[in-house]
Amino acid sequence: MTVVQGARAVAYEVLRAVTDDEAYANLLLPHAIARAGLDAKDAGLATELTYGTLRRRGTYDAIIAVAADRGVDRIDPPVLDALRLGVHQLLSTRVASHAAVNESVELARRHGGGRGAAGFANAVLRRVSRETPGHWLERAAAAARSDDERTGVTTSHPVWIVRALRRALAAEGRADELDALLEADNVAPRVAMIALPGLAEPPADARATPYAPTAFTTSGGDPETLITASDGRIRVQDEGSQLAALALTRALPVRAGERWLDLCAGPGGKTALLAAEALANGAHLDANEISPARAGLVRRAVASLPLPVEVSEEDGRDRAARAPGEYDRILVDAPCTGIGALRRRPEARWRKTPADVPDLTALQRELVLAGFAALAPGGVLAFVTCSPHLAETAGVLAEVKRELGEAAEELDAREVVRGVVRDDIDLPDQADGSLRAQLWPHRHGTDAMSIALLRKR
After folding, report:
1. Is residue 417 within 8 Å of residue 446, measured between CB atoms?
2. Secondary structure letter of residue 376 according to DSSP
3. Which run of H or E residues covers position 381?
4. CB 254: neighbour CB atoms within 10 A?
5. CA angle (382, 383, 388) in 5-degree steps
6. Contact (Cβ atoms closer than 8 angstroms) between residue 393 and residue 171
7. Phi and psi based region of residue 414 (left: phi greater than 0; alpha: psi -120 to 50; beta: remaining)
């Protein structure tokens, strides 16, 4: 009997948690690797198997449906996750076919109901193993009912996300970049790091990234070594996330004694950068996060910094309402669909639906309005999402500006970002005339962050 252990067992464990418990792979995987005691080679394999399977899940489901001659909704979830993992190894890795089939079949047997599940998985995977990846992609695409569905199958994106991304690119006159964007979503991102300004220096082998002056990459190796040696003052952080925080701190000159608030702070990466900037400029920073678990992550993110940051645990709307006119700068990194961060959080594409968007945009609007009311005259609010969806960006911004009227002045976030970055950065005009800065994975190598800046007159 095959015994499944090591990298495949860890990857399967994480896939099951993502499916059944809506776990986040980026949070669960490091703990699963440590618990299994994997060495660096097997940890790398477990990471590739987990993220590769999650990124291409839509394509693999379409292939499994053809090979099994039944919809994936008719396959028990434990067996389906074993099939996804097996198909990924067969079609997208150099793993030997017999190992991919045998160990995936054993996972189906052990977790999916015994010999019947194992026999079914064996038949499907052996069928897949007999043909090329191109053959299966053609067959899966041929079953699509529309051009957008075909694009979704071949690029592993839900149709609604394909359409949302196309519309967001079209708003910049760049709809022809859709294929490049969808392809970028399925490529593992480079590991961007940050040396908190004034508190840490990049290592000797650091290579500057094109944009954020705080960001760098290294020649490789485990970033945890750097993080630990610096007491957390060097850490992993997407370059777009760094630019979003810096757009707020550097939008206008800072006056000593300013009060800043990170209203939706979890998990704390931007909070730490804001704290470093506040320390360098003689400002004070508060943070808020509604989720106790994520508030704990925020406290950990700022624990090593020589600036006390009070972290409250409230609904951001209530927290802002308690401080009318008190803050000079407020970051509203609002909850969103997350479809701009699919490279790093691939499971997000399978977790949200179009039905989630109205509730999210209503919450975003309320958070921005509450945050704006907490600004002192002349204060600046940054409205940030890791989604380029026009309803979550341009739509919310337009509603907020309508409601605030002459009380709000939109600052040109594109010019602010251009003033922050090391090199030139391509930030086209938006069709709605707003002054948002929109970043993109395929164009900038960052998450698709939307950054808007509002100043209280």
Report:
1. no
2. E
3. strand 375-385
4. 18
5. 135
6. no
7. alpha
Look up residue 414 and give its two tokens: 């594109």
Three-class DSSP category at 350: helix
Tell me the residue length of the chain. Answer: 457
Task: Name which of 430, 395, 436 is nearest 414 in CA terms.
Answer: 436
User: Rounded distance, CA 104 to CA 168, Å?
Assistant: 39
- Asked whether the beta carbons of 244 and 215 are under 8 A apart, the reply is no
Cis peptide leading into 354, omega within 30 of 0? no
Name, in order, each residue with C-beta under 8 angstroms of 386's C-beta and a sequence gap of 6 or more.
Answer: 240, 241, 336, 338, 340, 341, 447, 448, 449
Residues paired with residue 332 on neighbouring β-strands, in sequence order: 383
| C-alpha–C-alpha distance, residues 152 and 167, integer Å | 15
Q: Does the structure show a pLDDT above 90 at 164?
A: yes
Q: What are phi and psi of 198, to 5 degrees?
A: 80, -10
Beta-strand relationship, 215-217 and 207-208: antiparallel
pTM, rounded to two decimals = 0.94
Let me know: does 345 contact 189? Beta carbons within 8 Å: no
Of all residues in the chain, what percent are helix, strand and coil, respectively (each to 5)? 55, 10, 35
Distances (CA, A) of 162 to 153, 159, 168, 241, 337: 10, 5, 10, 23, 14
Would you say residue 1 has pLDDT above 50?
no
Distance CA 175, CA 133 (A): 28
String of DSSP letters for 187-217: SPPP--EEE-TTT----TT-EE-SS-TTEEE
What three-state secondary structure class fits 332? strand
| Per-residue pLDDT tens over the stretch 218-265 | 987 778 889 999 999 999 999 999 999 999 999 999 999 999 999 999
Instruction: Write out the catalytic residue numbers.
Output: 386
Q: Which of 364, 339, 352, 298 is nearest to 447 (CA)?
A: 339
Distance between CA 411 and CA 396 in Å, rounded? Answer: 16
Please answer whether residues 438 and 244 qualify as being in contact, where contact means their C-beta atoms are separated by less than 8 angstroms: no
* Distance between CA atoms of residues 113 and 124, nearest Å: 16
Query: Residues 398, 430: contact at Cβ < 8 Å?
Result: no
Whether the pLDDT of residue 4 is over 60: the answer is no
Distance between CA atoms of 266 and 62, rounded to whole angstroms?
35
Q: Is 411 helix (H, G, I), strand (E, B) or coil?
A: strand
Contacting residues for 37 by C-beta, under 8 A, at least 6 apart: none
Identity of the residue numbered 179: D
For 215-317, list the strands marked E by DSSP.
215-217, 234-236, 259-262, 284-288, 310-312
* Cα–Cα distance, 121 to 104 (Å, whole number): 8
Residue-wise pLDDT for 281-323, tens only, equals: 999 999 999 999 999 999 999 999 999 999 999 999 999 999 9
